């Protein structure tokens, strides 16, 4: 009997997705460029299952039911294109290629069009949840050729994580590169969440002088509040973990964070689209700064840098940090949804933001309790421009404002870097300020470059230029956008 789906790539994510599919009754054919990997998998994790192996792409294609569904779980970039080129001559009209890696969404846009011209269908599916999610239920974000979705929907929704109500954390995202764009934003929010939690940990450890046992318990307590989330949960576990000598392992880890590019892509797209994704972009820069380990050590000596202890009631400060972390986290998600809305408008994707929140409710790295509230917010108002304007989130931001400012101010006062927490507050202050000082910037631009400006006492869209010195010209620049 022929297979339901083929999977190329037997690294940990590929293997676990295959095992997940097998658990749900789907017949899977596995292939890897290195034949020995296929044997290792079939004689190891896949032993005793119905999973079949294929030692060539032709064998893989021959073993699949039409229309063939082949999922690539390989490194993003040229490797994906290479496999696509090798598969094209082996496939028939209507067959489906799925890219389950962390591809950049413009590549998915290109691949959808390229394969459609050849009579084939392409899906770019973001998969989140790490190895555990892949094995027992990830969040899956598919987009691309809509004609392909009905054929893969039963498989993807079966293997995806489920909400408490049994809803699959997988649904069709949209045309073209929508799936990988949403996954990119997911990863950007993940960067922000991780940095915010790290800043809270830094405040507790360095500012409040807390022990690892105290910090662990604090994060466990917070996980019983609105902060309930996978990342809060694992932070408690990390703080509890001891090395062989009984000391906290986390303190022996080099403070130089790596990255694979999706956070950077999120920031670049935000800049291109004019969306103020300040918190997520700061989280990327925080990782860049962390990588300058040697320079930071020398600079600390040069400046004689010290961090003052935070004085006052520890319990009150911890409550303030909790409020500040929750409020900042809301801003991170709000900015991410602003970026998705702009991309959806620009590309005609018609994204369903409530569905996106549902897909992130389980299985993925940023799964958290308040994603249910985000879904409710967008179901109540699909045109919601800013998540913080929803009554539920507005109340949290307002109720936590005093504590948020207290923590931000104290971090600046004692010299403790908290770039994401403070940028989130600055963003909200800017977003809720009707009159910003950008009028001065426009005046300066017009003064030195005749770039023109709009006036508040004239209709929008009318542009003016002033000869500020009496020696300049009256001709406005036409080379730059205002």
TrEMBL record:
State which pathway it belongs to: Carbohydrate degradation; pentose phosphate pathway; D-ribulose 5-phosphate from D-glucose 6-phosphate (oxidative stage): step 3/3
Catalyses which reaction(s): 6-phospho-D-gluconate + NADP(+) = D-ribulose 5-phosphate + CO2 + NADPH
- Taxonomically, the superkingdom here is Bacteria
Which keywords does the record carry? Gluconate utilization, NADP, Oxidoreductase, Pentose shunt
Read off the InterPro entries from this record: 6-PGluconate_DH-like_C_sf (IPR008927), 6PGD_dom2 (IPR013328), 6PGDH_C (IPR006114), 6PGDH_Gnd/GntZ (IPR006113), 6PGDH_NADP-bd (IPR006115), 6PGdom_BS (IPR006184), NAD(P)-bd_dom_sf (IPR036291), Pgluconate_DH (IPR006183)
Q: Record keywords: NADP included? A: yes
Gene Ontology MF terms in the entry:
phosphogluconate dehydrogenase (decarboxylating) activity
Q: Is Transport set as a keyword in this record?
A: no
The EC number(s) attached to this protein equal 1.1.1.44
Ranges where the 6-phosphogluconate dehydrogenase C-terminal domain occurs: 179-469
How does this chain assemble?
Homodimer.
User: Which PANTHER family does the protein's record reference?
Assistant: 6-PHOSPHOGLUCONATE DEHYDROGENASE
Provide the function of this protein.
Answer: Catalyzes the oxidative decarboxylation of 6-phosphogluconate to ribulose 5-phosphate and CO(2), with concomitant reduction of NADP to NADPH.
The family assignment reads:
Belongs to the 6-phosphogluconate dehydrogenase family.
- What is the name of this protein? 6-phosphogluconate dehydrogenase, decarboxylating
Q: Which organism is it from?
A: Photobacterium arenosum
Q: What is the lineage of its organism?
A: Bacteria, Pseudomonadati, Pseudomonadota, Gammaproteobacteria, Vibrionales
């Amino acid at each position: 009997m022929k297979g339901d789906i083929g999977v190329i790539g037997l690294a940990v994510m590929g293997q676990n997705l295959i095992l997940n599919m097998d658990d749900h009754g789907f017949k899977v054919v596995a292939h890897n460029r290195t034949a020995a990997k296929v044997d290792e998998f079939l004689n190891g994790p896949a032993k005793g299952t119905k999973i079949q192996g294929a030692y060539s792409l032709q064998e893989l294609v021959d073993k699949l039911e039409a229309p063939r569904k082949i999922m690539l779980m390989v490194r993003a970039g040229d490797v994906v294109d290479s496999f696509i080129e090798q598969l094209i001559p082996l496939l028939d009209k209507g067959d489906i290629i799925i890219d389950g890696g962390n591809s950049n969404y413009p590549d998915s846009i290109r691949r959808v069009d390229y394969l459609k011209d050849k009579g084939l269908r392409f899906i770019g599916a973001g998969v989140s949840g790490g190895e555990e999610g892949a094995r027992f239920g990830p969040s899956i974000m598919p987009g691309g050729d809509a004609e392909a979705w009905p054929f893969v929907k039963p498989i993807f929704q079966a293997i995806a994580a489920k909400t408490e109500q049994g809803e699959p954390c997988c649904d069709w995202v949209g045309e073209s590169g929508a799936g990988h764009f949403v996954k990119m934003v997911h990863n950007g929010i993940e960067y922000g969440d991780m940095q915010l939690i790290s800043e809270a940990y830094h405040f507790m450890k360095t500012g409040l002088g807390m022990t690892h046992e105290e910090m662990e318990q604090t994060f466990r307590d917070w996980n019983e509040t609105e902060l309930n989330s996978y990342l809060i949960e694992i932070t408690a576990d990390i703080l509890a973990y001891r090395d062989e000598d009984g000391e906290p392992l986390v303190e022996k880890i080099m403070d130089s964070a790596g990255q694979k590019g999706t956070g950077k892509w999120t920031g670049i797209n935000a800049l291109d689209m004019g969306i103020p994704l300040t918190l997520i972009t700061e989280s990327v820069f925080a990782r860049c700064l962390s990588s300058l380990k040697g320079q930071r050590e020398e600079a600390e000596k040069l400046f004689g840098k010290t961090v003052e202890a935070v004085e006052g009631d520890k319990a009150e400060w911890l409550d303030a940090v909790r409020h500040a972390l929750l409020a900042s986290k809301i801003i991170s998600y709000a900015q991410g949804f602003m970026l998705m809305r702009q991309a959806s408008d620009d590309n005609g994707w018609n994204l369903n933001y409530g569905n996106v929140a549902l897909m992130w409710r389980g299985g993925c790295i940023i799964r958290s309790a308040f994603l249910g509230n985000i879904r409710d917010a967008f179901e109540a108002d699909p045109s919601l421009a800013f998540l913080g304007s929803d009554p539920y989130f507005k109340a949290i931001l307002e109720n936590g404002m005093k504590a948020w400012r207290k923590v931000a101010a104290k971090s600046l006062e004692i010299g403790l870097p908290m770039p994401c927490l403070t940028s989130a507050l600055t963003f909200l202050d800017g977003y809720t300020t009707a009159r910003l000082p950008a009028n001065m910037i426009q005046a300066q631009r017009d003064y030195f470059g005749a770039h023109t400006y709009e006036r508040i006492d004239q209709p929008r869209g009318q542009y003016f230029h002033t000869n500020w010195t009496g020696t300049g010209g009256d001709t406005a620049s036409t080379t730059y956008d205002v």
